[in-house]
Amino acid sequence: MIDPLSMLEIFRSYGRESTYSKLNPVTKFFLFVVFIIIPLISPSIFIQIFSLLMQIPLIIMSHSTNRITRSLRASTFFIIILIILNYLTTFNIIFSISMVLRLIGMIIASAIFMTGTDPAEIGDLLSKLRIPFQISFSFVIALRFIPVLADDVMMIITSQASRGYEIEKGGFLERVKRMIPILIPMIIIAIRRGHQLAEALETKAFGVSDKRTSYMRYRVNLLDLLMVSYGLLILIAGLLIVTTHLEIFPLLQL
Amino acid sequence: MGGIIIFFDIMKYVRKMIEIEGVTFTYEGSSKPALSDVNLRIEEGDFLLVTGLSGSGKSTLLRLLNGLIPHFYRGKMEGRVLVDGIDTREASVASLSKKVGLVFQNPDNQIVTLRVDREIAFGLENLGFPREEIVRRIEEVLKKLRIEHLRYRPTNELSGGEKQLVAIASVLAMRPKIIALDEPTSELDPFSSARIAYILDILNREGITVVVAEHKLDLFSPFANKMIVMANGHIVEQGSPRELLYKKELMIHGVRPPSVVKLSYEYGVSENKPLTLGELLVALRGR
Lengths: 254, 287
What we know:
heterodimer, A: mainly alpha, 2 domains, 72% helix, B: alpha/beta, four-stranded antiparallel beta sheet
């Protein structure tokens, strides 16, 4: 009934190019922030539905319709449980549904952003947000080394297995203990890699000049301007809904 | 007498790129020196092949060239290293990086970004070059190494040989006068290794001084004009590859001569000292 892999499909990493992925990273980040703020400004179900509907153009632009529906379908059971649990504690079914919708809305917003943005763009974005280069760079370097370290883990597992070591044996605690002969060589390899990386960075003059220049240049296109205005409109509309709809739909008032 | 004066006049124009004078270096926490009393002179345009067993001090020697020793590696250093007239103890690794580019053994540990062009731009960005200049140099370097097609490829998806070429490209973009490579082909297949050797020959012909620490003598010795053999932190043999590879004493230091050398002994043409298969064939025909 619960299939965690399909549930997480929504976050499958940066894939093919789409209209969304070609937007300026600042635009994408702005839209992401908008769709995180909107569900949070009010617990009303109306605003949650509004935020979900307004994300549809983004879903289409990022070619993630299939991914999101598949992921939501896989999470149906999980969503129902969340609603029930919420209901058991609040005894308000509309509120419960609204809370779950809020969660879904925010998950979709982050999924669109994460899957439609190249990790390197996120790094550039962080430096554009005046975050020190050392920090944004450590983000990029972490992503750079994920596949390398994954290969290392596979190599350690297979070499331990070829010496007759069984990792998947015994109960939960036993299995955790059995991870130690994998983890220790892993940590040593990672430290050694880190050292060589530091050497390489040193030879490429990392961190010498405060005036670091940037090779990447992101253009602001017409579509970026349109999308930013779309985000602004949604923010204004959201605030209007929060301040005015409560009188129009007294039933939904919470 | 006149001849000697002319000789010294000529010597003035042969520029010494690197002078290592009486260097002894012991890594922190180690009791045995990794290099002892090393003296070496590398001239502009040289292609120097450094060989010797693992642990003989090859990597330490290369780390001296761009100041990683003594700035990055702590330890006790005696003697001095002059790079283009500058004492490495008085210059930073960053300022030396514009003179000496260092390429390491494992390409995976020296590629730091997610895309080829960004990787080449990285060092230049750190040094604060304007964008237009960075773009110009990326194009120039990609063309020089014949890897234009890799420009926008993610670094994770490259093969080992391609990664090493990108690592070389990212160092070359900083336009060093010297490029030093520490066993650049140890993780590569034979085809990629040959490609690296070929590229280094091209770079050397264009005037870049090349220093390469390698075990694959078959591949690199035909291109090198100088060769040193290291053992236990000492330079034990020094000369041209042609002269050194035909020395019997080489085996004592654990260096196996290339197969061409063995064949030329077998066919009795060792006095011609061929280094490539082509030369061996010519020697055999002329017999």
